[in-house]
Amino acid sequence: MNVKSIPLLEEMLRKAGYRFADLSEVPLRDVRHVQRGAFPEMRMADLSERIALQALKRPVTRDLLCTRSGFQGPSPAHYIPRPEGSRDWIMIYCTDGKGWLRVADREFAVPAGCAFFLPAGTPHAYGASEGDPWANYWVHFRGRQAGEYLDLLGVAPASPLLYPSDGEDVVAGIERLHYLMEEVHNAANVVAASGALSALLGSVLLRQRTASRRGRTAEENCDRTLDFMRANLKNDVSLKELARVAGMSPGHYGALFRKRHQYPPMQYLNRLRIQKSCQLLRNGNLRIAEIAEEIGIPDPYYFSRIFRKIMGHAPSAYRREDSFPGKTDSGQ
Questions:
Q1: Of 6, 21, 89, 319, which shows the fewest CB atoms inside 10 Å?
Q2: Is residue 330 part of a domain?
Q3: Rounded to an integer, what distance in angstroms lies between the CA atom of residue 10 and that of residue 147?
Q4: CA-to-CA separations, 165 to 70, 196, 206, 283, 330, in angstroms, rounded
Q5: Which structural domain range is residue 283 located in?
Q6: In angstroms, what CA-CA distances link 127 with 34, 65, 101, 142, 155?
Q7: Is 94 found in the same domain as 223?
Q8: Which of 118, 125, 122 is closest to 139 using CA atoms?
Q9: Do 252 and 311 reside in the same domain of the chain?
Q10: What's the total number of domains in the chain?
Q11: CB 303 within 8 A of CB 279
Q12: Which of 106, 132, 94, 108 is nearest to 2 (CA)?
């Protein structure tokens, strides 16, 4: 796997006595040895292989397990080659500067605000841009659900990049995970780190954006209609009006919304209304017809039909606690 020249690292390696025509000829362990001390603000935490193998046998941690996490400040010497891939699944999130990723015979630019994901066993290399080297967080993980998370995120070796819309939330999630990884790796902390990793990946899933700048703008415009829906549950909202808020044609908006949120816009709006009606049914004394009016579905029969389709119960049955086997409290 040939990679671009990295002058500072090449100079460091040659001073250390290495001879090579291409950086890919230098084993990763030797690269890491020479790189020691070259990274400012380096923080890292590893799960020992013994503990990792034990955790992967436990039902509570075998599906998703963090094995490594860390952060490094900018250094033009940063370069990681893995021609055989990694035994872990990998997430890298660039916070500042620029980096690059080479995988599946393609090279990708990785700017600030971009994350990439790699499945275990995928040959790759990545590193810092020479002129504007990146600062980045990294998370390594394993488990039976690791591949399912990448499937949900829609990433693969041929399309590994994502652009989460809320970088501060991503950083906060990784910092929380890293805090737990830095603690003593007893069973409680390993389980807590597994939960933090699941929350992090779920947050990225909720906030993912495509690699195309034009595509990200369209996604942001599309997602803006979610706030409009929440603010207008009581009002008569049409697909045409939602598309106007997004600045798109109804057809384009409807297709993009369904791709991003699983349901067509009007179905999603009805599900928001039903969620609101559940709160009103359990936390107040409004009659069902009044609740239907409150959430913008003035026909109580139509409301009941939608409610039953989504929730599996009639509104009156949902309100009665004794309609739920085994439920004895008030939901508090």
A1: 21
A2: no
A3: 35
A4: 21, 19, 9, 34, 37
A5: 213-323
A6: 15, 25, 7, 23, 20
A7: no
A8: 118
A9: yes
A10: 2
A11: no
A12: 106
pLDDT digits (tens, 9 = 90+) for 238-264: 999 999 999 999 999 999 999 888 899
- Are 282 and 331 in contact by the 8 Å Cβ rule? The answer is yes
Provide the 8-state DSSP code for 296: T
pLDDT (tens digit per residue) in 136-159: 999 999 999 999 999 999 899 999
Tokens, residue 58: 């436990």
Q: What is the pLDDT of residues 283-307, one digit of tens each?
A: 878 899 999 999 999 899 999 999 9
Point out the domain boundary residue: 189, 206, 223: 206
> For residues 79 and 124, is the Cβ–Cβ distance under 8 A?
no
Same domain? 202 vs 222: no
DSSP classification of residue 310? H
In a domain? residue 26: yes
User: Rg of the chain over CA atoms, in angstroms?
Assistant: 25
Amino acid at the residue 53: L
Residues 143 and 125 in one domain: yes
**Res. 118: pLDDT tops 90:** yes
Residue keyed to tokens 């439920």 = 327
Q: Which of 161, 44, 141, 153 is nearest to 100 (CA)?
A: 161
Nearest to 253 by CA among 293, 280, 224: 224
pTM: 0.71
Q: Which residues pair with 125 in a beta bridge?
A: 81, 102
Q: Which residue has the tokens 């041929």?
A: 158
Domain identity same for 109 and 143: yes
Q: Check whether residue 168 and residue 127 sit in a common domain.
A: yes
Q: Output the domain CATH number for residue 66.
A: 2.60.120.280
